[in-house]
Design brief:
380 residues; alpha/beta; Rossmann fold; Transcription Regulator spoIIAA; four-stranded parallel beta sheet; three-stranded parallel beta sheet; 14 strands; 39% helix
Length: 380
């Protein structure tokens, strides 16, 4: 999501006459588009801002994205060199806020919770010439106990299906042949509670038909864009991922046979504390269903080790799940406290040394599995 947001900001600023540079020393403006999912990512931003602030004739510094929404006014207190703080929902007005900061030489704070203007997704700017990221939904309604996303990106909001197809068509017309659809939980597209908060449910129109558009139907619509050669998507939450998605992956030729479906833990006790909405057994059943429908389909996942209260038995359950499922790849993280979340109310009681050991063990196991699967694929 942050990669696409960065492209959106660049596209908006290029349209206003700004020029891009990879050299911070020669820049008039340096913008950090940030992530708050893990503390480590935030620390890198604080450090980079600190280095810039010590330079003579420093550029205007802006912090955008999740950190902006997470810390708001506090950013100006922690990093006095920062001139602009702009949350994810406000980037459609980034050029206006930059102009205000440059002219008035005053700090600008823009962190309202609002719906982005749809037009920002149609600037036509993509970093790669052959691949485009396209956002299908913003925000999240899951409120996993460890996750800050609903607090910094807001509640789930669906983009209209016709606008998504329009963006895909424009990208292909510009020479792009590969598209990845993005959402915190693409499997909830058109089916979650957003319409209950006054948002119109996305519609799929076929002739006279006008029906609610779920994610499998959206895949089908985007796949019909002439000239598109590859279509993928991330991320799928297990509790919302259904058989129909797997069938769409099987039946639509341009859809990549790859599913990123984070499980986070193999312990039912920890999964319940995380508010994930499924058990380890249900996850295994979903994996079996996926593999029975999508021939040779790839599967990747996310894991958190050292969640508050995670015992050695809990970790062993996770270890066994990884060993049994045999993911093609996985992202493995050590738990860190995130402000505003329910888990922040719990004691972070797993020692750092234990977190590091569990992280290393799981990483080594997954590495061996990935290597084994690659060797098997070459032989086949």
């Amino acid at each position: 999501m942050n990669v696409r947001d960065s492209e959106v900001v660049k596209g908006l600023l290029l349209a206003e006459g700004y020029e891009l540079t990879d050299d911070p020393k020669g820049a008039d403006v340096v913008l950090f588009n940030t992530c708050s999912v893990r503390e480590h990512a935030e620390q890198k931003v604080w450090s980079s801002v600190g280095l810039l602030s010590r330079k003579k004739n420093r550029p205007l510094i802006g912090i955008l994205g999740c950190m902006a929404q997470n810390f708001k006014q506090e950013i100006f207190q922690r990093a006095r060199a920062v001139d602009l703080v702009c949350g994810p929902a406000e980037i459609d007005n980034i050029a206006l806020y930059l102009e205000e900061a440059l002219k008035k030489q005053e700090n600008v704070l823009a962190v309202r919770e609002r719906v982005r203007a749809e037009e920002i997704y149609h600037t036509g700017f993509y970093e790669k010439k052959d691949h485009a990221y396209i956002v299908v939904s913003e925000g999240c309604d899951n409120f996993c106990s460890y996750c800050v996303v609903p607090y910094v990106r807001g509640r789930l909001r669906h983009r209209p299906a016709d606008e998504i197809v329009k963006e895909a068509q424009a990208a292909v017309d510009a020479g792009i042949t590969s598209i990845t659809l993005l959402g915190q939980n693409v499997s909830a597209y058109g089916t979650d509670g957003a319409e209950n908060r006054g948002q119109k449910t996305p519609a799929c129109r076929t002739g006279r038909e006008n029906r609610n558009c779920g994610f499998p139907e959206l895949l089908e619509k985007v796949a019909k864009v002439k000239g598109l050669k590859s279509l993928s998507f991330i991320t799928s939450h297990p509790k919302d991922t259904k058989k129909e998605l797997f069938e769409a992956m099987r039946d639509i030729p341009v859809v990549r046979k790859y599913l990123h479906m984070p499980v986070q833990s193999g312990s039912d006790r920890v999964l319940a504390m995380m508010n994930r909405g499924y058990t380890a057994e249900k996850y295994r059943e979903l994996v079996d269903l996926y593999r029975s429908i999508v021939y040779n389909g790839e599967l990747s996942s996310d894991f958190i080790v050292g969640f508050p209260g995670e015992s050695e038995e809990d970790f062993r359950a996770t270890y066994e799940l990884v060993k049994d499922v045999r993911f093609d790849s996985a992202f493995i993280f050590k738990y860190s406290v995130r402000p505003h979340t329910k888990a922040a109310e719990l004691a972070d009681d797993v020692p750092q040394g234990t977190k590091k050991r569990r992280h290393a063990e799981l990483l080594e196991l997954q590495k061996s599995i990935s290597q084994s699967l690659k060797k098997h694929a070459k032989k086949a």
